[in-house]
Amino acid sequence: MNTDSTMVRTRLDDALYALSQARPAPDAAALEKLVRLYPEHARELTTFAIELALDALDDDVDCVVETPSAETNAAVLDAMSHFHNQLYSIQQAKEHNVKPDIAASVANSFAALDRQEMRSLGTRLHANTVFVMKLRDRLIAADTMPIGFKQRLAEEIRAPFEAVLAYFSGGSIVSAPAYYRSDQKPQVGEKQSFEEAVRSSGLTSEQQSYLLSL
Amino acid sequence: MAQPLSKTKEDDGTRYTRFPEVEAAIDIALCQDLETISQRARIRNSKSPQHMTSECLVHLIRHARRGSDDHALNTLLPLLLERCHANLNKKVDKDIPNAAMVRRDILRDLSALFAIDGSSDDKLALDFFEVRFNLAFARFRDDRVGKVIAQHAREVEFPSSPGDTVEQEIDNEVVVRLADLNGSGDLDEGLFRKQVIEAVKALPTGERDAVLLVHYHGFQIGSDMPGEVTAATLCNVDRRTIQNRLTRGLAKLSKLREQA
Fold first, then answer.
1. Please, what sign has the CA dihedral across residues A38, A42, A44, A48?
2. What's B8's DSSP letter?
3. What pLDDT does residue B249 have?
4. Separation of CA B233 from chain center
5. Which terminus in chain B has less CB density within 10 A, N or C?
């Protein structure tokens, strides 16, 4: 990010912080004062003053208690999975002194895959979705994974090879562990070897042969 | 006692501060067990005395993150994300291409803020969420929605031709009720008031903004005085456009009175 845009953003931060001090929403005089103080952010200030007004009006309407929809649950699960992937990458980067962005790029690549893309990646790797999920969740021991396979994966997810190495060097992930209802945190089993993972993912014999030949 | 915020203002270098009631709520919550906190965080009715504000919830999640309290982190963060998704369901227009995906991505980005909190990548963005959550989240959301809309080059045009007038007569009582929206009047007709609020929210953006700027915030429609801030200058349109939007918006709202 260049310095100019950082400064503009910082000033917008200040402008919105000042706006936030008017409660429940700024009146005309307060908003006018802010617009004069931060003329370059008049549009944003106006937009968010209206947002605050709508919020204030919302407070007057009785809250309807909603049960989270299936879409909400799925989105929350997905976000928690993303959170844990990011957290893991940061922790790993600290331990291995790897730049977080590099390690996170692989986590992001996996996290960005929807069901169809997951299937597509599986096909491109001569595998299937189950196998890709094992990769995503780091359930396969990195030292048993053929170099050729790691290179192939790096190409397919368009990530640097070092990032793939950094990603797999850490412990397994429980996808979306935040949503368990038990008091006990789910335990992650020992990692499978690459061969065990290939044998236990429901792959065809042709797919197994190909992957084990890498 | 809650850890002070770290973000500072550019103009005077002072730190951001939370509102006193947020500080007090955090102090109380920090003394409560996780089960109580999570029960409170599930309450959606903001008028309930047990309701936990999102500002407080953000602080507790960050507190858990700083203390490596995975159990608290994994219990509370999903509750905050649920609230945010409910907001996204309301505020992210379903007509935006891939609206469900946009909501999902916004939630992911928000969760990432908590992941990088305290790391070298942290820009202290979450501090503002502890000051005024709704405003911080609105900005966070709108930044991303704006990019999606720009990407799809889907700009919403508001009709503003000079001859575009509405023939319907505006019901004065609706205008009076709108003036009441900022809490200045005697509000006894609760049901009608709620209908007006919902109807204002349902107006097209341009009409809604004109109605709120003039009748909620109290701005003049326009002015001949150079440099005066009015609804027209704020929306970067001429006075007649604001007048037309106002006329159309109020005409729609006036139908409520007929139905009531």
1. positive
2. B
3. 86
4. 22
5. N
ipTM over 0.90? The verdict is: no
Query: What are the structure tokens assigned to A10, written together?
Result: 């910082």
Cβ atoms < 10 Å from Cβ of A76: 26
CB A25 within 8 A of CB B216: yes
Residues 6+ apart with CB under 8 A from B222: B230, B231, B232, B233, B238, B239, B242, B243
Q: B44 vs A11: CB contact, 8 Å cut-off?
A: no
* Weakly modelled stretches of chain B, pLDDT under 70: 151-194, 256-260
**Which phi and psi angles does A48 have, rounded to 5°?**
-80, -25
Whether residue A24 is preceded by a cis peptide bond, meaning omega within 30 degrees of 0, is yes
β-sheet bridge partners, residue A140: A192
pLDDT tens digits along B76-127: 999 999 999 999 988 888 777 788 888 998 999 999 999 989 887 777 889 9
Report the C-alpha gap between A166 and A170 in whole angstroms.
7
User: How far away is chain A from the Cα of B163, in angstroms, using its nearest Cα?
Assistant: 27
Separation in Å, CA of B7 to nearest CA in chain A: 10
